Amino acid sequence: MKRYSISRLPNGLTVATAAMPDRASVSLGLWIGVGGRHEGAEEGGTCHFIEHMLFKGTRRRTARGLSEAVEGVGGYLNAFTGEESTCFYARARHDQQEQLVDVLSDMFLNSQFAPEEVDRERSVIQEEIAMYQDQPQQQVQELLDAALWPDQPLGRPLTGTAESVARLGRRQLLEFKRKLYTAETTFLVGAGRVRHDQLVRSAARWFRGHKPGVPRSAAPVREAQSQPVLRLHTKAVEQTQLALGIRTCSRHDARRYALRLLSTLLGENMSSRLFQVLREEHGLAYSVYSSCSHYCDTGTLVVSAGLDTENLHRALTLIVRELRRLAARAPGRAEFGRARDYVLGQMDLGLENSENQMNWVGEQLVGYGRVLSPTGVRRRMAAVTPAEITAVARDFFRPDRFNLALVSPLKRATSLGRLLRDGA
Predict the structure, then answer these.
(1) Tens of pLDDT along 299-346?
(2) Which of the four pLDDT bands, split at 50, 70 and 90, describes residue 221?
(3) How far apart are CA 133 and CA 136, in angstroms?
(4) Residue 235's pLDDT band (boundaries 50, 70, 90)?
(5) How many separate helices (H) and strands (E) can be counted in the chain?
(6) Helix boundaries (H) for 244-385
(7) What is each CA distance from 403 to 226, 244, 416, in whole angstroms?
C-alpha cells in the first residue's frame, strides 16, 4: 500500500494522508503556512491570538460545544503557532474521521470572533505572556531570539507582547485571517487508519467555502553580525539560565543532515559530549542540551543550560571548548556511529505514532511543498561522514555567529563576550 498520497482541490487547498491501516486512530491536522514571521511590526502576536480565537465558538457550536464534539467521542483537540506555520489538530478513533473534519473546518471557517470573546481572550493571552516572563527557561530563549534576529519577526515572541496584544482588536484579527489564511496556504493532513479518497471527499465538502488568495511571503532575514552578541537580563533567580545560539543554515541546505548529527554528538542525549562533560565530569549543570531549528532561509543551533551563577564562566569555557573540538577534529568511528544510530532510531520510533506522522507530513508540505520520504531522509542521514561533521562545525562555529543570552542575577558579563570571541 502507498504510504503517502497528496491531492489538491480546485480552490487550492491541499489534502495529504499517511496511511497506517493497522492503527485504531486517525490524527488530522489543519496546517496553515502562516506564522509569526508573517506578522508586521505592529501585528506581533496576531497568529497566536487567532489560534486562541478559533476555539471560542462558531455559528454552530459554542466553545464548549467544539470541545465536546471531539472529547465526547474519545478524542482530543489542540493547536500550536510556530514561526512559519500554524496547526489545529485532533485525534480520535478512525471511525470518527468525518466528525473531526467537520469540527476543524467549522472552527477554521466559521469562528465568530465575538467582541466580548476577543476582549476576554486578550486578557488570557496577556496572562500567558506574564507566565512565560516568570519562567527563566522561556525568557532566555526569547532573549536569544532577539539577539539572533534584532528588529525582525524571528526575533519577536510568538505570543506578542502585552502592548502589541492590547492593540489587536476584532477587525485586525479578521482582516489578517482573511488576507493570509487562504486556501493555497492550507493543508489538511490525515495519518493513521485513513483512506485518502475519503478524506479528499470530506475536505471538498467541508472546505468548499474556503477562498483562494495571494499568500504573503515572509520577509527574508537580515544577517549583519560581525562579532559575538551578548544579551543579559538581570533577575533575582536561583540559577543562571544560559542559551548560546549559533546561526546556521536553512531547511533547504544539504548541510542540515550533518548539522543534526553534530547536535546529537554535542548535546541531544545523555551520551553527548556536553552532558558528559558539564554534568557527569564536572557536576556544573542538571540540564544541558542542544537542538537545531531550520527555517526557509536560515537556522540555528542552540545550547541551553541552567547553572549556579558562580559556575557560569567555567561552564561556558567548557561549552566553547567542545565546539572548537568538533571543528578541529572529526569524531571517532564509535562515537559517530552511536550518534547516527540514535538519530535514525529516534526517527523510526517517532514515526510509529499517527500524530507524529501527521506532523511529519504537515511540516514538510508547509516547508518544502512536498513530502520527503522517511526512507530517503534516513538514507541521506546514514551517508553523512565524520569529515562532514567537522566541515559544518568549521562553517558555523565562528565568533561572528555566536549569540549568548543570559537570565541571571549578574549585573554585567562583559568577560563572557571576550570568551566567545577569543575562546579563553
Answers:
(1) 999 999 999 999 999 999 999 999 999 999 999 999 999 999 999 999
(2) very high
(3) 7
(4) very high
(5) 16, 11
(6) 256-267, 273-274, 312-328, 333-350, 354-368, 374-382
(7) 11, 6, 11
Cα 67 to Cα 303: distance, rounded to the nearest angstrom: 38
The full set of domains in the chain, from first to last, is 4-206 (3.30.830.10), 229-422 (3.30.830.10)
Sheet holding 4-8, edge to edge: 4-8, 14-19, 186-192, 25-32, 86-93, 76-81
| Residues 58, 63: Cα–Cα separation, whole Å | 8
CA 411/CA 242 separation, integer angstroms:
15
Look up the pTM and report it: 0.95
Q: What is the separation, in whole angstroms, between the first and last Cα of the chain?
A: 57
> Pick the catalytic residue: 39, 42, 43, 51?
51
> Can you tell me whether residue 131 is helix, strand or coil?
helix
Q: What is the mean pLDDT of residues 217-244?
A: 93
Residue 162 is placed in which grid cell? 502585552
Give residues with Cβ within 8 angstroms of 377, minimum separation 6: 347
Which residues are CB-contacts of 326 (< 8 A; sequence separation ≥ 6)? 262, 265, 266, 389, 390, 393, 397
Q: How far apart are CA 419 and CA 414, in angstroms?
A: 9
51 belongs to the catalytic site: yes
Q: Any idea how long the chain is?
A: 424
Angle at alpha carbon of residue 381, lines to 376 and 290, rounded to 5°: 130
Residue among 344, 338, 424, 423 at smallest CA distance from 382 = 344
Q: What is the pLDDT of residue 421?
A: 87
Question: Over the stretch 95-126, which tens digit does the pLDDT of each residue have?
Answer: 999 999 999 999 999 999 999 999 999 999 99
Give the pLDDT score at 423: 67
